[in-house]
Design a protein that fits this description.
Layout: H1 2-24, H2 33-44, H3 53-59, H4 62-72, E1 98-104, E2 112-118, E3 121-132, E4 135-144, H5 156-161, H6 179-184
Antiparallel strand pairs: 1-2, 2-3, 3-4
Length: 187
């Protein structure tokens, strides 16, 4: 009797495992926007965003690469960091631990919607993508959802383009997209 019950559940277990592996191991063509975003988030999952030009250039366009480098390398007269970023812009936290990464790209858009778990909380972002001579690159990361470190609609590009940092929470938004519109986007 035990072996009948065991065999009866095997197809369910097998299908569950296939579904889990498919959801966790999304595969994208190397020349796609999703591939670049997946590589960025996978590489940053526990170590955080890379901090050298060569690595940043694999993921970000020229403008965002320069802004990130300037921020990472900013040292004030007192010898302390004077960068605007007080968190990892990919992981949206000070201590990256990204798991359960899911990506979605709407057909009519080059942007990639990102959903991941970190320390038991769900995080969401939109990676604005541009096609460069070197391939697809992230031109901005826009945060939305309940657990991001910045307000819904906050943008890394907007934040890094500011002359002086604002204490959290701050409220820049993506031009043309309200926080309510961002909240309607679901993965």
């Amino acid at each position: 009797m035990n072996s009948i019950k065991k065999n009866r559940h095997n197809p369910i277990v097998a299908l569950s495992l296939v579904f889990l592996l498919t959801a966790c191991e999304q595969k994208f063509p190397p020349d796609s926007p999703e591939y670049v975003v997946q590589a960025l988030y996978s590489d940053s999952a526990t170590k955080g965003i890379p901090r050298d030009r060569a690595a940043l250039s694999r993921y970000f366009d020229g403008r965002l690469t320069e802004l990130l480098l300037n921020d990472f390398n900013c040292i004030g007269a007192d010898g302390k960091s004077c960068g605007l970023l007080y968190f990892d812009p990919v992981a949206q936290t000070k201590e990256p631990d990204i798991t359960d990464l899911k990506l979605f790209k709407p057909e009519e858009s080059n942007d990639v919607l990102v959903d991941f778990m970190q320390n038991g909380a769900e995080y969401k972002a939109i990676c604005a993508m541009v096609k460069t001579r070197d391939g697809w690159r992230v031109s901005d990361i826009i945060y939305y959802g309940a657990n991001q470190i910045l307000d819904p609609g906050a943008s890394v590009m907007t934040y890094l383009s500011m002359q002086t940092p604002l204490p959290p929470p701050w409220h820049p938004t993506v031009p043309g997209m309200s926080p309510e519109e961002l909240e309607k986007l679901h993965l």
